[in-house]
What does this fold into?
Amino acid sequence: MIELAVILPTFKERKNLAPMVARLDAALAGIAWEAIFVDDNSPDGTSDEARAIAQQDARIRVIERFGRRGLASAAIEGMCATAAPIVAVMDADGQHDPALLPEMLAAVKSGEYDLAYASRFAEGASVDAWGRPDRVKASGLANRIARKVTGVQLSDPMSGFFMLRAETLRADAHRLSGVGFKILLDILATVDAPLRVKELPLHFAARLDGESKLDQTVVFEFLVGLYDKWLGRFIPTRFALFGTVGALGVGVQMSALWLVLHLLLGERFVYGHWSSNVTFNVANTIAAVIAMTFNFVLNNELTYSDKRLRGFVPLMRGWAKFAMTCSLGLLTNVGSAAALKAMGFHDFVAVIVGIVLGSVWNFALSSKFVWGKY
Ligand SMILES: Nc1nc2c(ncn2[C@@H]2O[C@H](COP(=O)(O)OP(=O)(O)O)[C@@H](O)[C@H]2O)c(=O)[nH]1
Ligand SMILES: [Mg+2]
It folds into this structure.
């Protein structure tokens, strides 16, 4: 009977898989285990390598996902794809020592603890071998903020190496946000009954091959994750991001308008001459297209980073579709404002309601038609 499933989310880790499996095999002697690699269609052929290993070793399984990215969602889907009663999550790059797994398993199996995890900042742990003093500092700060905001009192709630009963996870899996990388924090902050946590000191190592995927996005994802836990249930995280990008777009359009008028009118503009209607309309149209393009790029990078469009043709097609949804959004915006004004509402109220309705419309359409699969 299978006892333990080890979930290893991977993105571009091809060369690290074989050493990882060898270490799991050595560490878990005498335990009935399986390992599931959850790969987001890595361009380096990680999933092919995982399947090649699995051909020789039935304890190894592979989940390959397409058109999506995300460490947290990969971990959740892996944990829900096993019949093992106990599940663990760890990095596939050698930074987490599999030798800690038996001790974690004993703690969870004993019934004394609901969750065991390896902390980089516990008594007896070390991060020197990591070779990334910048990330040590950033993690320390992130941990402090996370403890404040969520009330979770662990030395390293941002750890990516933990184990718990699968049923504990499944009971709340539908409520997890699956956003960003802080899956442990997400679990701890989501479950209703407080979990009894066993903390083990981790000697955090340097990664074997390749480079960190979290370097570029670590701060952004952290903030998004915190927002999601904090205010996400009032205003959904993605909509908040979309709205923020939209608000920035207003600033971009204003600046672009100023710039274009300046270019069109040159000195006359500088000395305070007002533009004619025609010039203004031409300039404002150009500015609007610039702002819309800015919004498209930023939404593609941030709001929909997990479904990011890449390559010239997909980007141009996405841009064209975004332009179309935005024009419909504009009609909704102006149309609803006009209707409200006709009904006797104050101008200001009409404009605000128009903006909100237009944004909701843009958001709904673009998440379906620009970044969605339908
Ligand atoms: N499936 C999947 N795995 C990911 C993704 N991003 C990172 N990973 C994996 O998650 C683990 C931790 O990521 P890593 O880049 O090592 O982050 P770091 O240890 O914080 O520098 C590694 O095994 C990565 O391959 C992703 O978008 N999807
Ligand atoms: Mg790593």
Notes: The chain has 13 helices and seven strands. Residues 4-230 form a domain with the Spore Coat Polysaccharide Biosynthesis Protein SpsA; Chain A fold (CATH 3.90.550.10). The mean pLDDT is 90.
